[in-house]
Amino acid sequence: MIPEQIIQSFGGTLKTYSKDRTIFNEGEHADFYYQIKTGHVKMFNLTEDGKEFVQGFFKNDDSFGEPPLFGDYKYPATAQTLEDTELYLLSKSAFFELLKMHPDIHLTFTKMICKRMIYKAKIAREVSIYPPEHRILTLLNHLKSNAKVETDFEVPLTRQQISELTGLRVETVIRAIKKLEKSKALAIIDRKVVI
């Protein structure tokens, strides 16, 4: 998202995290901007019974955890690596200075945060009132629209990840996907979900 040379020019440092390492915990104060150079990160909350509810998955060049920097509040979720990951860390004050000096980057962040808010609003509604098939289709259609794909879209998520993003059990996701395939709302090609 932010070019590496710009991050480095504002004092950003590259740090390596091993697989399954916690980057920050829910409830900790937000002090850094994080951007992935290489790797894979998930942000999640734990339910009372210990089940993960995933807020999002992030990969190369993605940033995560920015809203608490803007709002000056604590992290609403935990961030953890899913594989060995290289992250750029930039202090909060340097991040704000960077945004002041680069209004084009600031606008890009505003657009990205708005997209994430729309996604959260859609998912919150889906989780609370709709059946599994509807929840899954909403998630998949959201991913397709963000990918700006007009034709067939191969969903880049496993059944487990769909489960974590919708708050459904994996078994429920598998059954719902089969129902959706039967009704021709999606297709399964080489074990991949295509919408």
- The helix/strand series, from N terminus to C terminus, equals HEEEEEEHEEHHHHHEE
Neighbour order of strands in the largest sheet: 1-8-3-6
**Which structural class is indicated by helix and strand composition?**
alpha+beta
User: Gyration radius, to the nearest Å?
Assistant: 18 Å
How far is the N terminus from the C terminus? Answer: 27 Å
Q: How much helical structure, as a percent, in the residues? A: 40-55%
Summarize the biggest pleated sheet.
4 strands, antiparallel
Number of strands: 10
Q: How confident is the prediction overall: mean pLDDT?
A: 92
Shape: globular
Q: Quote the beta fraction.
A: 25-35%
Spans of at least 5 consecutive residues whose pLDDT stays below 50 are none
Give the count of helical stretches: 7
Question: Can you describe what's shown?
Answer:
Helix 3 (92-101) packs across helix 4 (103-129). With 195 residues, this protein is an alpha+beta fold. 44% of the residues lie in helices and 25% in strands. The chain is globular. It has seven helices and ten strands. The protein has a four-stranded antiparallel beta sheet. Strands 2-7-4-5 form a four-stranded antiparallel beta sheet. A two-stranded antiparallel ribbon has the order 9-10. The protein has helices spanning 4-9, 67-71, 92-101, 103-129, 132-147, 159-166, 170-182, and strands at residues 13-17, 22-24, 32-38, 40-46, 52-59, 63-64, 78-81, 85-91, 187-189, 192-194.
Summarize this, please?
It is built from seven helices and ten strands. With 195 residues, the protein is α+β, with helices and mostly antiparallel strands.
